[in-house]
Design brief:
Keywords: Membrane, Transmembrane, Transmembrane helix. The chain has 228 residues and is mainly alpha-helical. The chain has seven helices and three strands, in the order ααβββααααα. Helix 6 runs antiparallel to helix 7. 35% of the residues are buried.
Amino acid sequence: MLFHPMDFLIFIAFGISLWAQFRVSGNFNEWSKVPASSGLTGAEVARMILDRNGLHHVPVELVRGTLTDHYDPISRTVRLSEPVYYGRSIASISVAAHEVGHAVQHKQSYGALVLRHRMFPIVNFTSGIAPFLLLTGFIFHQFSLLGLGIIFFSFAVAFQLITLPVEFNASSRAKKFMLAEGLIHSGEERGVNKVLGAAALTYVAAALISVLELLKFVFIFMQGNEEE
């Protein structure tokens, strides 16, 4: 039976995920209209914080799209979307500082980030095979394949769980950087918290969905073994 009572919880978690994504775009749009007191662009803030942390060699590049901002650990590059790169708003400098937070994590070999990088090749492999194993196990009632699929899928779940402290830590660093450098004043902290908090919620929701899906597969596997 493909349907399971836990599907209801997964559906709720999926709804939370959609709501979180809505909040990300909503908060970003709202605080994009509020100019930062520093008057600096996201690119200038990113460059300043990188240089203050001895990361002069890390470039800040423009990337297409909206909310496509990220730190590339392979090329060691901070990439900012156009609204963030050129923007002088609370939202722009918050996102820019967050991505720089990842670059500083990389320099300092932040434990969760190091583990995440080491897991990536394994997760890239297992996440591609897990759906095939799970589906085949369900259709043909091959619980050995289902069990293997669960093991492979658990790597992806672990990867998402490890991502949480990485993202929360980067946001914490971003706020500390901006306050220490005088890039925001106390009255602007609310906007920074809104923008970064909404983004963090999307990672929490994604992790929750994955954990619930994994538990569903485990319960089905256990029930199948009991019936045999």
